[in-house]
Specification:
Blueprint (H helix, E strand, L loop, with lengths): L1 H54 L2 H26 L5 H32 L3 H20 L1
Keywords: Membrane, Transmembrane, Transmembrane helix
Pfam families: Phage_holin_3_6
Protein name: Phage holin family protein
Amino acid sequence: MRMFQLLRLAAQAEALRWKRTGRGYAIQAVLGAVAAVFALMLVIMLHVAALIWLARGRDPAVAAVIVAAVDLVLAGILGWLAARHAEDPVALEAQRVRDDALRQVGDTTARAAMVLPLLRSQSAKKGLVGAALTAAVVGLMARR
């Protein structure tokens, strides 16, 4: 019964980890989209600034260049936030719980695999050899 509880716990931890990881990717995508909008606004403002500068005196163009510079700074900050990969502490804890639960399931299964040949065998010597071989096989499989 404990093995099923551990497997259920591992599945719940994995679901939580995937949910939190997906949430992080969604936030990164939104920040990237906002950065793209500000970059587009930068290009538009640079065009407007060039037109104003060519059409009139320098004061309106300087104002448009300042606005474009602010857009550039905002696009840079939002792009940096979207590009960084911050680890979610809840997702990391969920992964640790999943790994612990699966390791305990493996330990429980290995113990059962070692004890069963002893219980099934006709002689103690034959049962000990079977248990040793089973333990060796389970140990090799657990290392993979």
